[in-house]
Description:
- This protein is mainly β.
- It contains three helices and 22 strands.
- It has a five-stranded antiparallel sheet with strand order 1-22-21-20-17, with no helix packed on it.
- The protein has two domains: 38-65 and 217-337, no CATH class; 70-211, no CATH class.
- It has helices spanning 2-22, 106-110, 266-269, and strands spanning 38-41, 50-55, 60-66, 72-75, 83-85, 92-95, 132-133, 141-142, 147-150, 162-170, 174-181, 188-193, 200-204, 209-211, 222-232, 236-246, 252-256, 286-289, 294-297, 302-306, 312-321, 328-337.
- It is globular and about 60 Å long.
Amino acid sequence: MTLLRTTRYLILAALLPAAVACMPEDTPVQPFDRGDAQSALVSMGTDYAERIYFDLSSNSAVSAIDFTAWDLEFACAAGSFEVRANSAQFVSVANLGAVDLASVDAKAAEEAEFEFDVYSGDSDSLAIGQWWSAGDGALPLTRGDVYVADLGYDAAGKVQGSYKFVIESADENGYSITYADMKGGEARSARIERDDRFNFVGFEFSSGETIAHEPPRDSWDFVFTKYTYIFMLPERLPYSVTGVLTNPNGAGAILETETPYEEIDRALATTLAFGRREDVVGYEWKTFDFSGSNFQIDPTRSYILRDTGGFLYKLRFTDFYDPISGDKGTPQFEFQLL
Protein backbone atom coordinates (compact mmCIF):
# COMPACT_ATOMS: atom_id res chain seq x y z
CA MET A 1 0.00 0.00 0.00
CA THR A 2 2.87 2.37 0.88
CA LEU A 3 4.71 1.48 -2.35
CA LEU A 4 1.61 2.22 -4.44
CA ARG A 5 1.09 5.60 -2.78
CA THR A 6 4.79 6.49 -3.30
CA THR A 7 4.61 5.52 -6.95
CA ARG A 8 1.59 7.79 -7.45
CA TYR A 9 3.42 10.73 -5.87
CA LEU A 10 6.45 10.14 -8.16
CA ILE A 11 4.23 10.11 -11.25
CA LEU A 12 2.49 13.30 -10.20
CA ALA A 13 5.81 14.97 -9.47
CA ALA A 14 7.04 14.07 -12.94
CA LEU A 15 3.92 15.44 -14.64
CA LEU A 16 3.76 18.65 -12.61
CA PRO A 17 6.36 20.69 -14.57
CA ALA A 18 4.60 19.91 -17.86
CA ALA A 19 1.21 20.84 -16.43
CA VAL A 20 2.54 24.12 -15.10
CA ALA A 21 4.16 24.91 -18.44
CA CYS A 22 0.77 24.58 -20.12
CA MET A 23 -0.92 27.06 -17.78
CA PRO A 24 -1.31 30.66 -18.95
CA GLU A 25 0.78 33.28 -17.22
CA ASP A 26 -0.79 34.88 -14.15
CA THR A 27 -2.62 38.12 -14.84
CA PRO A 28 -1.71 40.72 -12.21
CA VAL A 29 -4.71 41.76 -10.12
CA GLN A 30 -5.17 45.50 -10.13
CA PRO A 31 -5.47 47.05 -6.65
CA PHE A 32 -9.05 47.91 -5.79
CA ASP A 33 -9.60 51.66 -5.83
CA ARG A 34 -10.86 52.57 -2.39
CA GLY A 35 -11.63 56.10 -3.50
CA ASP A 36 -11.22 59.36 -1.67
CA ALA A 37 -12.88 60.42 1.54
CA GLN A 38 -16.50 61.45 1.04
CA SER A 39 -18.69 63.80 3.01
CA ALA A 40 -22.44 64.02 3.44
CA LEU A 41 -25.16 65.73 5.40
CA VAL A 42 -28.81 64.93 6.06
CA SER A 43 -31.52 67.23 7.36
CA MET A 44 -33.87 65.75 9.95
CA GLY A 45 -35.46 69.10 10.75
CA THR A 46 -35.04 71.08 13.95
CA ASP A 47 -37.65 68.85 15.63
CA TYR A 48 -36.01 65.68 14.23
CA ALA A 49 -39.32 64.69 12.60
CA GLU A 50 -37.68 63.12 9.54
CA ARG A 51 -36.39 59.56 9.69
CA ILE A 52 -33.70 59.37 6.98
CA TYR A 53 -32.29 56.15 5.49
CA PHE A 54 -28.74 56.39 4.11
CA ASP A 55 -26.71 54.25 1.68
CA LEU A 56 -22.92 54.45 1.90
CA SER A 57 -22.08 52.98 -1.51
CA SER A 58 -24.01 55.71 -3.34
CA ASN A 59 -23.43 58.42 -0.71
CA SER A 60 -27.11 59.25 -0.73
CA ALA A 61 -30.23 59.44 1.38
CA VAL A 62 -32.45 56.66 0.03
CA SER A 63 -35.72 57.83 1.58
CA ALA A 64 -37.23 59.90 4.36
CA ILE A 65 -40.47 59.56 6.31
CA ASP A 66 -42.17 61.30 9.21
CA PHE A 67 -41.54 59.21 12.32
CA THR A 68 -45.24 59.18 13.27
CA ALA A 69 -46.31 57.35 10.09
CA TRP A 70 -46.62 53.95 11.82
CA ASP A 71 -47.14 52.51 15.31
CA LEU A 72 -45.99 48.89 15.12
CA GLU A 73 -43.79 47.08 12.61
CA PHE A 74 -43.93 43.40 11.66
CA ALA A 75 -40.99 41.30 10.46
CA CYS A 76 -41.04 40.19 6.84
CA ALA A 77 -38.20 37.66 6.79
CA ALA A 78 -39.25 34.04 6.42
CA GLY A 79 -39.40 32.31 9.81
CA SER A 80 -39.35 35.55 11.80
CA PHE A 81 -42.40 36.68 13.81
CA GLU A 82 -40.89 39.69 15.51
CA VAL A 83 -43.13 42.68 16.21
CA ARG A 84 -41.59 46.02 17.18
CA ALA A 85 -42.98 49.24 18.58
CA ASN A 86 -42.17 52.58 16.95
CA SER A 87 -39.37 53.71 19.23
CA ALA A 88 -39.00 56.99 17.33
CA GLN A 89 -42.49 57.94 18.52
CA PHE A 90 -41.72 56.84 22.09
CA VAL A 91 -44.25 53.98 21.80
CA SER A 92 -44.33 51.68 24.83
CA VAL A 93 -46.22 48.42 25.28
CA ALA A 94 -47.70 46.58 28.28
CA ASN A 95 -48.65 42.90 28.34
CA LEU A 96 -51.86 42.29 30.32
CA GLY A 97 -51.89 38.56 29.75
CA ALA A 98 -54.49 36.26 28.19
CA VAL A 99 -57.59 38.24 29.15
CA ASP A 100 -60.67 39.28 27.23
CA LEU A 101 -59.89 42.25 24.98
CA ALA A 102 -63.19 43.94 25.84
CA SER A 103 -62.39 43.80 29.56
CA VAL A 104 -59.25 45.94 29.25
CA ASP A 105 -60.05 49.51 30.26
CA ALA A 106 -58.13 52.63 31.24
CA LYS A 107 -57.77 51.49 34.84
CA ALA A 108 -56.19 48.20 33.78
CA ALA A 109 -53.78 50.08 31.56
CA GLU A 110 -52.81 52.48 34.35
CA GLU A 111 -51.82 49.58 36.57
CA ALA A 112 -49.80 47.82 33.85
CA GLU A 113 -46.04 47.98 33.42
CA PHE A 114 -45.02 49.46 30.08
CA GLU A 115 -41.82 48.51 28.30
CA PHE A 116 -39.78 50.00 25.46
CA ASP A 117 -37.83 48.27 22.70
CA VAL A 118 -34.07 47.97 23.17
CA TYR A 119 -31.98 47.70 20.00
CA SER A 120 -29.78 44.84 21.16
CA GLY A 121 -30.42 42.64 18.13
CA ASP A 122 -32.30 40.11 20.26
CA SER A 123 -36.06 39.56 20.20
CA ASP A 124 -36.21 39.19 23.97
CA SER A 125 -35.15 42.85 24.29
CA LEU A 126 -38.35 44.02 22.61
CA ALA A 127 -41.39 45.29 24.49
CA ILE A 128 -43.75 42.80 22.87
CA GLY A 129 -41.20 40.01 22.90
CA GLN A 130 -42.18 36.46 22.02
CA TRP A 131 -45.96 36.72 21.73
CA TRP A 132 -46.28 33.10 20.62
CA SER A 133 -45.67 29.63 21.98
CA ALA A 134 -44.50 26.57 20.09
CA GLY A 135 -46.88 25.93 17.23
CA ASP A 136 -47.51 23.27 14.64
CA GLY A 137 -44.26 22.87 12.74
CA ALA A 138 -42.73 26.18 11.69
CA LEU A 139 -45.78 28.30 12.48
CA PRO A 140 -46.30 29.92 15.88
CA LEU A 141 -49.31 29.50 18.13
CA THR A 142 -50.51 32.72 19.73
CA ARG A 143 -50.69 32.96 23.51
CA GLY A 144 -53.68 35.25 23.12
CA ASP A 145 -52.13 37.94 25.32
CA VAL A 146 -53.67 41.40 25.24
CA TYR A 147 -51.23 44.27 24.78
CA VAL A 148 -51.78 47.96 25.34
CA ALA A 149 -49.72 50.33 23.20
CA ASP A 150 -49.15 53.87 24.42
CA LEU A 151 -48.45 55.63 21.12
CA GLY A 152 -46.22 58.31 22.57
CA TYR A 153 -45.87 61.76 21.02
CA ASP A 154 -45.51 63.48 17.69
CA ALA A 155 -42.71 65.98 16.91
CA ALA A 156 -44.67 68.79 18.57
CA GLY A 157 -45.14 66.77 21.77
CA LYS A 158 -48.81 65.98 21.14
CA VAL A 159 -50.05 62.77 22.81
CA GLN A 160 -50.97 60.15 20.20
CA GLY A 161 -53.39 58.07 22.27
CA SER A 162 -53.38 54.35 23.05
CA TYR A 163 -54.75 51.10 21.64
CA LYS A 164 -55.22 47.57 22.91
CA PHE A 165 -54.55 44.62 20.62
CA VAL A 166 -54.09 40.88 20.29
CA ILE A 167 -51.86 39.17 17.73
CA GLU A 168 -54.23 36.42 16.70
CA SER A 169 -52.02 34.46 14.34
CA ALA A 170 -49.12 34.57 11.92
CA ASP A 171 -48.00 32.48 8.98
CA GLU A 172 -45.59 32.64 6.07
CA ASN A 173 -47.73 35.32 4.40
CA GLY A 174 -48.45 37.71 7.26
CA TYR A 175 -50.12 38.48 10.58
CA SER A 176 -53.67 38.87 11.84
CA ILE A 177 -54.49 41.18 14.73
CA THR A 178 -57.56 42.43 16.59
CA TYR A 179 -57.41 45.92 18.12
CA ALA A 180 -59.48 48.70 19.62
CA ASP A 181 -59.03 52.31 20.66
CA MET A 182 -58.67 52.64 24.43
CA LYS A 183 -61.07 55.60 24.30
CA GLY A 184 -63.85 53.25 23.21
CA GLY A 185 -65.34 51.83 20.06
CA GLU A 186 -65.73 48.40 18.55
CA ALA A 187 -62.84 46.02 18.04
CA ARG A 188 -61.47 45.84 14.51
CA SER A 189 -59.45 43.22 12.67
CA ALA A 190 -56.51 43.77 10.37
CA ARG A 191 -54.27 41.65 8.21
CA ILE A 192 -50.63 42.73 7.80
CA GLU A 193 -49.05 41.05 4.79
CA ARG A 194 -45.35 40.27 4.63
CA ASP A 195 -43.28 41.83 1.86
CA ASP A 196 -39.89 40.19 1.50
CA ARG A 197 -38.40 43.32 -0.06
CA PHE A 198 -38.33 44.89 3.41
CA ASN A 199 -37.10 44.10 6.90
CA PHE A 200 -40.42 45.23 8.38
CA VAL A 201 -43.78 46.59 7.29
CA GLY A 202 -45.51 49.12 9.49
CA PHE A 203 -49.05 49.30 10.80
CA GLU A 204 -50.99 52.40 11.87
CA PHE A 205 -53.85 51.88 14.34
CA SER A 206 -55.84 55.03 13.51
CA SER A 207 -56.17 54.22 9.81
CA GLY A 208 -55.92 50.43 10.06
CA GLU A 209 -53.47 50.50 7.18
CA THR A 210 -50.20 48.77 6.45
CA ILE A 211 -47.40 51.28 5.86
CA ALA A 212 -44.26 50.77 3.76
CA HIS A 213 -42.27 52.98 6.10
CA GLU A 214 -38.76 51.88 5.19
CA PRO A 215 -36.98 51.37 1.84
CA PRO A 216 -36.04 47.90 0.49
CA ARG A 217 -33.74 46.15 2.95
CA ASP A 218 -30.76 45.90 0.55
CA SER A 219 -30.85 49.60 -0.36
CA TRP A 220 -29.73 51.23 2.92
CA ASP A 221 -27.11 50.82 5.62
CA PHE A 222 -28.24 53.01 8.52
CA VAL A 223 -31.01 55.38 9.50
CA PHE A 224 -30.93 58.77 11.22
CA THR A 225 -33.83 58.78 13.64
CA LYS A 226 -35.20 59.52 17.05
CA TYR A 227 -35.35 56.39 19.21
CA THR A 228 -35.85 55.48 22.84
CA TYR A 229 -32.83 54.76 25.02
CA ILE A 230 -33.02 53.33 28.53
CA PHE A 231 -30.71 55.11 30.98
CA MET A 232 -29.83 53.52 34.32
CA LEU A 233 -29.46 56.35 36.86
CA PRO A 234 -29.58 53.85 38.67
CA GLU A 235 -33.33 53.55 38.07
CA ARG A 236 -34.58 52.93 34.55
CA LEU A 237 -35.28 56.15 32.68
CA PRO A 238 -36.61 55.82 29.11
CA TYR A 239 -35.54 58.88 27.15
CA SER A 240 -35.96 59.98 23.53
CA VAL A 241 -32.61 60.49 21.79
CA THR A 242 -31.58 61.33 18.22
CA GLY A 243 -28.96 59.22 16.52
CA VAL A 244 -28.17 56.38 14.14
CA LEU A 245 -29.35 52.77 13.94
CA THR A 246 -27.82 50.25 11.54
CA ASN A 247 -29.76 48.06 9.14
CA PRO A 248 -30.38 44.64 10.77
CA ASN A 249 -30.04 43.09 7.31
CA GLY A 250 -26.29 42.47 7.53
CA ALA A 251 -25.03 45.97 8.33
CA GLY A 252 -23.06 46.59 11.51
CA ALA A 253 -20.88 49.05 13.37
CA ILE A 254 -17.92 49.12 15.73
CA LEU A 255 -16.95 52.08 17.91
CA GLU A 256 -13.23 52.90 17.70
CA THR A 257 -11.80 55.36 20.23
CA GLU A 258 -8.16 54.23 20.55
CA THR A 259 -6.98 54.63 16.96
CA PRO A 260 -7.08 58.12 15.38
CA TYR A 261 -9.52 58.34 12.49
CA GLU A 262 -6.75 59.01 9.95
CA GLU A 263 -4.96 55.79 10.96
CA ILE A 264 -7.96 53.46 10.76
CA ASP A 265 -7.41 51.09 7.84
CA ARG A 266 -8.66 47.80 6.50
CA ALA A 267 -6.01 45.83 8.38
CA LEU A 268 -7.41 47.11 11.67
CA ALA A 269 -11.04 46.72 10.62
CA THR A 270 -10.64 43.05 9.67
CA THR A 271 -9.35 42.18 13.15
CA LEU A 272 -12.52 43.43 14.85
CA ALA A 273 -15.78 41.57 15.40
CA PHE A 274 -19.17 43.06 14.60
CA GLY A 275 -22.00 42.42 17.02
CA ARG A 276 -25.76 42.43 16.50
CA ARG A 277 -26.61 45.67 18.27
CA GLU A 278 -28.24 48.22 16.00
CA ASP A 279 -27.44 51.23 18.21
CA VAL A 280 -23.62 51.03 18.27
CA VAL A 281 -23.33 54.34 16.41
CA GLY A 282 -26.22 55.60 18.51
CA TYR A 283 -26.41 59.19 19.75
CA GLU A 284 -23.21 59.75 21.77
CA TRP A 285 -21.16 61.12 18.86
CA LYS A 286 -22.58 64.45 19.98
CA THR A 287 -22.93 65.98 23.42
CA PHE A 288 -24.92 68.97 24.63
CA ASP A 289 -22.91 71.87 25.97
CA PHE A 290 -25.14 73.50 28.59
CA SER A 291 -22.89 76.52 28.93
CA GLY A 292 -23.16 77.31 25.23
CA SER A 293 -26.61 75.79 24.74
CA ASN A 294 -25.50 73.86 21.67
CA PHE A 295 -24.39 70.43 20.52
CA GLN A 296 -20.71 69.55 20.20
CA ILE A 297 -19.24 66.68 18.18
CA ASP A 298 -17.09 64.24 20.16
CA PRO A 299 -13.84 64.01 18.14
CA THR A 300 -12.68 60.86 19.93
CA ARG A 301 -15.43 58.68 18.48
CA SER A 302 -14.85 57.04 15.10
CA TYR A 303 -16.82 54.16 13.65
CA ILE A 304 -16.06 51.19 11.43
CA LEU A 305 -19.13 50.26 9.44
CA ARG A 306 -20.05 47.20 7.44
CA ASP A 307 -22.66 47.88 4.79
CA THR A 308 -25.32 45.44 3.61
CA GLY A 309 -22.98 44.34 0.79
CA GLY A 310 -20.21 43.41 3.25
CA PHE A 311 -17.92 46.36 2.42
CA LEU A 312 -16.09 48.13 5.25
CA TYR A 313 -15.95 51.87 5.84
CA LYS A 314 -14.65 54.26 8.45
CA LEU A 315 -16.86 57.17 9.47
CA ARG A 316 -16.81 60.15 11.79
CA PHE A 317 -19.21 63.00 12.45
CA THR A 318 -18.17 66.59 11.88
CA ASP A 319 -21.21 68.73 12.77
CA PHE A 320 -24.87 68.71 13.81
CA TYR A 321 -25.86 72.09 12.37
CA ASP A 322 -26.91 73.21 8.90
CA PRO A 323 -23.93 75.01 7.30
CA ILE A 324 -26.18 77.73 5.83
CA SER A 325 -29.04 78.30 8.28
CA GLY A 326 -27.18 77.17 11.39
CA ASP A 327 -30.22 75.13 12.45
CA LYS A 328 -29.73 71.97 14.49
CA GLY A 329 -30.83 68.58 13.22
CA THR A 330 -28.48 68.36 10.24
CA PRO A 331 -25.82 65.72 10.95
CA GLN A 332 -22.68 66.11 8.84
CA PHE A 333 -20.17 63.31 8.51
CA GLU A 334 -17.28 61.99 6.45
CA PHE A 335 -16.50 58.41 5.51
CA GLN A 336 -14.19 56.34 3.36
CA LEU A 337 -14.21 52.83 1.94
CA LEU A 338 -11.50 50.65 3.50
